[in-house]
Amino acid sequence: MLKRMNGTTNLKELAKILGVSISTVSKSLRDSYEIGEGTRKRVKEMAEKMGYNRNPYAGHLRNHKSNTIAVVIPEITNNFFIQIIKGAETISQQKDYHILIYVSNDNYEQEASILKHLHNGRVDGVIMSLASNTKTYDHINDLIQVNIPVVFFDRICHEIETAKITTNDFVSGFNATEHLIQQGCRDIAYLSISQVLSIDNKRKQGYLEALSKYDIPFNPKRIIYCGNNAADNLKKIKALLKQKVKPDGIFAAVEKLAISSYEVCNSLRIKIPDEIKIICFSNLDTASLLNPSLTTITQPAFEIGKQAATVLFKNLDKNKRFIPNENIVLKSKLFTRESTTVRN
Asked: Which single residue of 16, 278, 279, 311 has CA 20 to 30 Å from 22?
């Protein structure tokens, strides 16, 4: 007797019984023109026998949509991603859609597992920002191949053709570094979050361009490659600031590295901004409440979320499962506060 499927193994079980690929099953259930009529009929008949239609997450078998989209983010504690979710939710509510939130914890394996989980038709589309250690993209291509479109925001993948919503990271990286230079810094360290993320590379390039413009020699040792381990990041920043000749400015690619820098400065009794000035990319609500208040490059996160959802729904409304390449770039803003102020 055939058993009723449920959970994430639905498509796998059906594909195994029929002797076809998961992609073939998914496309057949979605009436894709790529699959012959005979195969589509055979897949649907078997799905019906196995009670697939009764799966509450398999609405695509009845009406080709689940009225749900997924937002995949690296972390939930960062206010930037919270604002992204709120922006996307604004558009989703207008479309009478629900949002499922998935957190990769900035880990490639978990990100791949999440996307594999979404193959069963739980969502109609995905908005996502990559984990910092994602170097291969088969898991994303596989999702698109089963007709679930993906839109990237912030941490994007250039290798996949789809819509990408970003900010002017190169210009903002340049502006952040130039601001430090104009405040008197001549030995600026850049705290990197990833060697593979496009946003980090662009911010770093902006940093290097600003140094070049002001004829400040580039010291490769002033680029500190950090990661997801907070303890390791603290050790690296402490080693940087315990040097005999320490930098007089820090440009952190993300806010958690700036907060770690504050912690190290406090433990080493280094005064901000008198001895070292700090700036970072951040949407931290409490940036103005820190002591001293933190100078930030703030991204229009809410608008990014709205734009990402708008692009996704524009294609879903037209029943497009493969989204053409589109690059939407929004502007970030510099908020000057005490951490980079020149005191008399």
From this structure: 311
| Per-residue confidence (pLDDT) for residue 2, from 0 to 100 | 42
Read out DSSP for 280-292? EE---TTGGGSSS
The DSSP result for 52-104, as a single string, is: GGG-TT-THHHHS--SEEEEEES-SSSHHHHHHHHHHHHHHHHTT-EEEEEE-
Would the CA dihedral through 252, 255, 260, 262 be positive or negative? positive
Token pair 């400065």: residue: 265
Cα torsion 187, 189, 190, 194: sign: positive
Which two three-digit tokens encode residue 213?
């413009």
Task: In whole angstroms, give the CA distance from residue 11 to residue 339.
Answer: 54
Number of Cβ atoms within 10 Å of the Cβ of 25: 29
Read off the amino acid at residue 256: K
Q: Find all residues with CB under 8 Å of 207, minimum gap 6, and list them.
A: 173, 174, 176, 177, 188, 190, 251
Token look-up 């099953």 returns 25
Instruction: Tell me the C-alpha distance between 200 and 82, whole Å.
Output: 20
Q: 3-class SS at 129?
A: coil
Any residues with CB less than 8 A from the CB of 287 and at least 6 apart, and which? 255, 293, 294, 296, 335, 337
Residue whose structure tokens are 């009529």: 37
Contacts of 344 (CB under 8 A, 6+ apart): none
Maximum C-alpha span of the chain: 83
CA 194 to chain centre: 12
Which of these, 111, 43, 32, lies nearest to 73 by C-alpha position?
A: 111
Q: pTM here?
A: 0.80
Digit-coded pLDDT (tens) for 45-70: 888 887 664 344 444 443 467 899 99
